[in-house]
Structures are given as C-alpha cells and as structure tokens.
Amino acid sequence: MPGSPSAAAAPSPSPASTRPVRVPDLRALKERGERLVMLTAYDGVTARIFDEQGVDLLLVGDSIGDNMLGHRNTIPVTVDEMVVATRSVARATKRALVVADLPFGSYEASPAQAHATSVRLLKEGGANAVKLEGGRHVTEQVRLLTRSGIPVVGHLGLTPQAENILGGKRVQGRGEDAADALLADAVALADAGAVALVLEMVPAPLAARVTARLAIPTIGIGAGAGCDGQVLVWLDMAGMADWAPRFSRRFGEVGVALAEATRAYGAAVRNGSFPGPEHTYGE
C-alpha cells in the first residue's frame, strides 16, 4: 500500500533532470503525490522531442496500427512492427522509461508466449518494460515476466485488442458488479508483480477507487483526474488527427502548422523561389 518504506528511498527524477526514469521511481512518484506524464511515441523524431521535454514514460503503443499504419484498429499490428518502432524510440530516448505494447496474439496463449515476445521487445527493441491487456486471466504471464526481470504495465478498462468482444469503444466498469470485477483485476495484476496500471475509459470514481487501493501507480486515459498520471496518443494531444476522443485535449495544432508549411513549400517550388542562391552550391 502507499507509504511502504521499500519504495520511499528511491529519488524521483525531475523534468529538468537527465537521470533515466527507472521502475522504482514510479512508485516513489506516486508516494510523493507527483503526477506521471506519459505519451505514445512511434519513431525517433517525436521520441527525442518528448524525452527532452521531460515526459516520464514513452509508450510504444500498438495504437501505431490505427494512428500510423493505416489500419482500422490495433489488431493487425505484428511483433516485428513493434520491434522496429520500439527500437526507433529507444535509440532516441535518454530519460524516459520506454514501455512497449505486446500486440494482439503475441501473449494470450501462454506465459511462455508472452515471455518470448517480451524478450524480443527488450533485446531487439530496447524497451525498458512491456504492457499487456487483461486482468486475472493474464496474471500467470505477469508473474513469469516479473520473475524473468521484465517489468510489466497492466491495462484495464477499455482494452482495444478485445473490441470485437466488447462491441466497440465503450466505457467499462459501470455498475457495481463491473466495478468490483475491475477492481479485483487491478489487485490481481498488482499482486502478480505489475509495476503500473493503465486505466482506459473507466468512470472517474472507479478509477479513483482503484488508485487509492493500489500501491503501484495508475495512469489514466479517459479515467478522470484521480489517477496517478495521464497518457494520451500523441497525435490527439498535438492536434494531428481529424478526430479525437472525448477524453482527449488538443494542446497544440501541429497538423495545421504542418499543412501550412507544406503549402508554402509547394508554392515556393512552383514559383521558382526555392531553391534560391543561398540553397545552391557553386562550382
């Protein structure tokens, strides 16, 4: 529970610090009441920018599927694709803790399958931790990974890989029975060794209840302000998408700026003003 002396000794990094964020820092930050900042990243360019601005955790999400690769959802994403994306992010990161998603079909069958996928993401991709979806039914996977030295972040609430079962992107944990089940899943994941827990599209009172119950930090996305931290898909955060979910907020209009730069570039090429003499090599 919060306040345990085992984690209190771990110093918490500040956004201005270049000291890498480590797993013990996550619980230390929760105990200090400091919010964790998490964003998705899928390439080295954005990872470097986010890392330099003090983002604590970079999630190489399987959301790469419907945000970068043109898929309708996350289900088609492969382990090979996740390895390449994770490697790109990890190479560009100096401070943030890099968390890589285990994609659909790469961990559900057995703890051994989860272990093999996770080893690839750490050895080939350079991840510091992995994230998987599900509750009590994946605790054996979490236990094996933890015993093997692989930090695990859990994911409850809306679990996008299960959207065919859930019937779409719907709020989860509404009603007393559903809330109790989600809390039981959260406790089971923490007991199995998970180092943090993402709560997606969960009623705010339930997310606050889970947060108060667990010693590990919760990171919300559409789960209210009562979580220990927040995560957003970076394209939603930066205004790169035509549509964003209700729980998101546009903190910039990068898409507008990129469109304007592209139009200006095209006009300069067409009217002959680019390249100019200052962009040209002589003999």
Written account of the structure:
The chain is α/β, with parallel strands linked by helices and 283 residues long. Helices cover 41% and strands 13% of the residues. Helix 6 (111-123) links the parallel strand 3 (97-101) and strand 4. Helix 3 (44-52) crosses helix 5, helix 6 crosses helix 7 and helix 9 (176-192) runs parallel beside helix 10.
Which structural traits does this protein have?
283 residues; disordered N terminus; globular; alpha/beta
What does this entry show, briefly?
The protein is an alpha/beta fold. It contains twelve helices and eight strands.
Helix content: 40-55%
Radius of gyration from the alpha-carbon trace, in angstroms: 20 Å
The ordered string of helix (H) and strand (E) elements is HHEHEHHEHEHEHHEHEEHH
Record the strand order, biggest sheet.
1-2-3-4-5-6-7-8
